[in-house]
Amino acid sequence: MNKTLTPMRPVAGLLLAALAVLAPPVLARTMVAPDASAPDWQVDCGSDDTCRASRTVKNTQNDQRIATLTVIFNREKAEQGLSVAVPLGVAVDAGVRLIFAGRTRDMGVKVCYPDGCLALDGLDVDEFRDLMKARAV
Fold first, then answer.
1. Which of 65-82 are b and which e, b meaning 16 or more Cβ less than 10 Å from the residue's Cβ?
2. What is the distance between the alpha carbons of residues 90 and 11, in angstroms, rounded to a whole number?
3. Closest by alpha carbon to 81, among 118, 130, 45, 124?
4. What domains appear along the chain, each with residue ranges and CATH number?
5. Is residue 23 exposed (0-12), middle (13-18) or buried (19+ Cβ within 10 Å)?
6. pLDDT one-digit tens code per residue, 42-92
7. 95 and 20 in contact (C-beta within 8 Å)?
8. Which tens digits make up the pLDDT trace of 21-47?
């Protein structure tokens, strides 16, 4: 029996992690991070000058998690890495698209775990600065 695969549930449109395979009507319903005076990053730094900053983006209509961004950076070496985690049920064939501060960043999904899939990539200094300051992603 040949079955056509369909998403388990509709996925909210995204400014963060917008997937290229989604239908245009879904992309038109963009979600923005909750209105706040500063971006909602949680930062944890270790003793080796390595820090991890995380931010969860949710659908503002139903509070459902769209994606979680994690930036790992070294304060001494000015090196940054980015991971974007999306929940299960999201089509990931075309990868993940991250849009922030007028930039568009396409990332391939590297691995999926029982709780979601990860896209991983590096960041240059300007992207890192803009992402950390972005109010909407």
1. ebbbbbbebeeeeeebeb
2. 7
3. 124
4. 24-133 (2.60.40.1880)
5. exposed
6. 888 887 888 899 999 888 899 888 899 999 988 777 778 999 999 988 888
7. yes
8. 322 222 222 333 333 344 688 888 887
